[in-house]
Amino acid sequence: MDFTTPVPYEITPQIPVFSNEAAQLATNIAKLSQPKLTKLLLVSPAIASVVYRYYQDWDETCVGRPALWTYTGDVYKGVKAQTLSEADADWAQQHLLISSGLYGLVRPFDGIQAYRLEMKSSFQIERATSLNEFWGGKLSQYVDGQGDDWLCNLSSEEYARVVTRHTKLPVITPVFLDTKPTGAIGQVPIYSKMMRGVMARWMIDKRIRNPEQLTKFGEHKYSYDSCNSKPGFPAFRRQKMIPLRFD
């Protein structure tokens, strides 16, 4: 997460949709000792020490920083949020949702604070024994209520299933394949992760509104592969597996 690079234009941070739930989780996590936090997050004591401070400093009144310009993982390298025009950012605000263990779902302009919490964490709160159980159908109900008639899933299974297993919408999950040096065709996890961000950015740039338009995707030498596609899982393959680099 990046809290120092200036956002390229003025954005008033919005209140996250599930801010109450996020505050509830943060308050309960702040009560954990550092050893328990280490075990919960499956990280080193050094990392747990940093994250422990995040939760001790949690402030419900803090407006936070716009989410899309704060996350910096491999997926977000492909989104290139810093290069979005203001019009593109506004469109993303209306169409893009980011899955989060702590915040549930956040829109690009939603203000977030520093945290670390994987969706797969077995954190017990109230009657729920895991975050998946805690979020239950809340996230899918929100998604279903946005008035759209389909959902493009560009999240990892860990984060996606909290929504996809409950939603009433048709879910389209793009699959990214590489032709490996052995000739075998399959997914390369790091490239699949990065290309999910690339496709999200492409959908914003092209104002994609229906699943059929996805077949036009052709970034970084990936193109639609009808032979390896399945209903709900359009495949995109490149002929040569080479490192992905973003300028």
Structural features, described:
A 4-stranded mixed beta sheet has the order 8-7-10-9, covered by helices on one side. The chain contains 9 helices and 10 strands. The chain has helices at 19-29, 34-41, 45-56, 74-79, 86-95, 131-135, 138-144, 157-164, 189-206; strands at residues 65-66, 98-100, 104-106, 111-112, 151-152, 171-172, 175-179, 185-186, 223-230, 233-238. The two termini are 20 Å apart. By secondary structure, the protein is of the alpha/beta class. The chain has a domain at 12-72 and 82-148. The mean pLDDT is 95. Helix 2 (34-41) crosses helix 3. The chain is 34% helix and 14% strand. The radius of gyration is 19 Å and the shape is globular. A hairpin with a 5-residue loop joins strand 7 and strand 8.
Topology:
Blueprint: H1 19-29, H2 34-41, H3 45-56, E1 65-66, H4 74-79, H5 86-95, E2 98-100, E3 104-106, E4 111-112, H6 131-135, H7 138-144, E5 151-152, H8 157-164, E6 171-172, E7 175-179, E8 185-186, H9 189-206, E9 223-230, E10 233-238
Parallel strand pairs: 5-6, 7-10
Antiparallel strand pairs: 1-4, 2-3, 7-8, 9-10
Helix pairs in contact: 2-3
